[in-house]
Amino acid sequence: MAYWILSADFKKWKPELGDSFNKWSDWNKPINYNCFISSKTRLKGNAANLNKNDIVLIHAKRNGIIGIGYISYVPIDKENIQENDYITVEPIMVLENILTIDELTKNNLTTGYQNSFTSCDEAKFNKIIDLASIRSTLNTRLKKLGLNFINSPKPNIISKEKIINFSINQDVFDSLYLPKSIINKIVDLLKRKKNIILQGPPGVGKTYIAKKIAESITDTSNSDFVQFHQNYSYEDFVIGYKPNEKGGFDLIKGKFYLACLEADKMYNTNNKQVNPYVFTIDEINRGNISKIFGELLMLIENNYRGHTISLASNTQFSVPKNLYIIGMMNTADRSLAMIDYALRRRFSFISIPPVFEGIKDDDITSWGSPDSSADETKRVFAHFLNKEKLNTEYGKSLIKVVIDLNREIEDKLGKGFIIGHSYFCNLSIDDNDITKECLRDVIEYDIVPLLEEYWFDDTDMVKKWKETLFAAVQ
Hints:
Layout: E1 3-8, H1 10-17, E2 31-34, E3 55-60, E4 64-73, E5 86-100, H2 101-106, E6 117-119, H3 122-131, H4 135-145, E7 163-164, H5 170-175, H6 180-193, E8 195-200, H7 206-217, E9 223-227, H8 234-237, E10 239-243, E11 249-253, H9 255-267, E12 273-274, E13 277-282, H10 289-293, H11 296-299, E14 309-310, E15 316-317, E16 323-330, H12 341-344, E17 348-351, H13 376-387, H14 393-412, H15 436-454, H16 459-471
Parallel strand pairs: 1-3, 7-12, 8-16, 8-17, 9-13, 13-16
Antiparallel strand pairs: 1-6, 2-5, 3-4, 4-5, 10-11, 14-15
């Protein structure tokens, strides 16, 4: 069995198919093609090479792939084809969603087919039917016709290796309140493992860190973002059937599937060096990991990148080598179970501390201007105070109380519940020092509600720390 692409002209089909044929979706009768061109001077391309039961993709001019048929009749004596000999193509199925010329072009599939049968190799044919997500439906129709199944390509490992451009710029170090050693470790782990999770308590800037790293290592167009929740599913993330306006179901590609297609196009260029594609998942521990990832738990693993498998929808799929996943996880969310161990093995976990972790409160006057011998933690903390306009007596006084509060939180609840520095970020107006009133609002409407949740059964503890926090900014 061979595969062909037939260039179809609606105006030429209409006279033969009659009044019931008003649009491509009406194709339900055999169509005959004369073996000679209109001038009768020579055979149409490949007319002598066609065989009965060959599969034909119908490429409609100015539209794209609109359907699939099979050859039901060819001239008996192909070595002596006569002027009136013809080839018959019968319909197998018409696509509910046409594969447009733009889609074919984006996926490096030739679209310039002329008025004849163009040979289509098995790899290209498989790519087209998987792009259309019709393998299962097509095989069902073929079975009814007594024709051969279209087998999925055998799993393979992409052999070609390319250099993936992977570097970060100075802006990342300047904009993140983290020591360079931690930033470099995050980048190194992402480059090696390809999958990392930034974990930490509320307000340490996990999402912002992921955003800045993604912006640094690739163009903003080469990234995507999703947030997991309890109702998020495999169908949303990878692929699945969803109801359409006609009362039926369409096979819809999910966000991660589409991201992998984009990354794959970037990887399969003629360039020896390619850019990374960064896929960010916020609140990764809020979703049902096994349910959402399904068989992708294997494919996202570094050693299985480029490995092609057949999904439950009979769609061929692989995770490209230049796709990198950054997940974020809030360690203070007690409503969630421990993260799936199968996922944990495939990710590296980096704990993100608050900027004031490790800062001693014995001499707060020097916090904003450490001496030259100060370690990197103190220098980053000073940068935070000055950039966020907190280097005032009352600003540092409040931060000192938060440091003390974090010690008690860590002692009573655990390190995953301490308060992060982002509660005090981006509060300055017109680059002026943060006002006491602004900091009181942060205490009243951000920090205290968090403490009330932490110590819902200990109102005295909440009252003590509320009074202590407010006293710092009197």
